[in-house]
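Re-run with default settings, no changes from the original entry. Doing this only to confirm the output is reproducible before filing.
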Amino acid sequence: MKSFVSMKIINVVGARPNFMKMAPIIAAMNRYPDEIEHLLVHTGQHYDEQMSKAFFDDLGMPKPDIDLGVGSGSHAFGLAHYLEPREDGKGILVTDPLGYLEFLHLTMNARMVLTDSGGLQEETTVLGVPCITLRHNTERPITVEQGTNVVIGNDKHRILAAADDVLEGRVVGGRVPEKWDGKSAHRIVEWLIDA
């Protein structure tokens, strides 16, 4: 029988993709209280305390052991302060910040997503929703190679052409990459314990 030495692990979350990935890892770690002792550190990258709290509540994460309160300066958040919730008649809804589950529901039911977020590129790939990335590169190349993501840049004509391709059905569907099966947290924790 293998004897275990208690590991001490610090889990750090800050932005939305971190929460989505860390929640199942924490749940898996909690199944091994004698082998793994972990702390949760929240960088506090969300300006909105309600939005930050929604991530913890929606994903069933414990209250952080340490909250650094760093904040962030994304242009998207700054812009949100100037926009009122409204529908523009073309099916585009501008809202206040949403909780993770509400946002996931919108993403699941979207005809397409335009984003500069790496985490959203991953979510649309898993959900099979066409994604147009408004950047010149991506740190998630697998979402382009196998998923539903295209990297367009910020040229207005290329963005509109890509959106037209989606709306006219000229987009080839992607597939969910290998091991994106929702079991990664279990595999990670098993590896930690067996290491």
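The beta strands are 7-13, 36-42, 66-67, 86-87, 93-94, 113-115, 131-133, 149-151. Residues 16-29 form the longest helix (14 residues).
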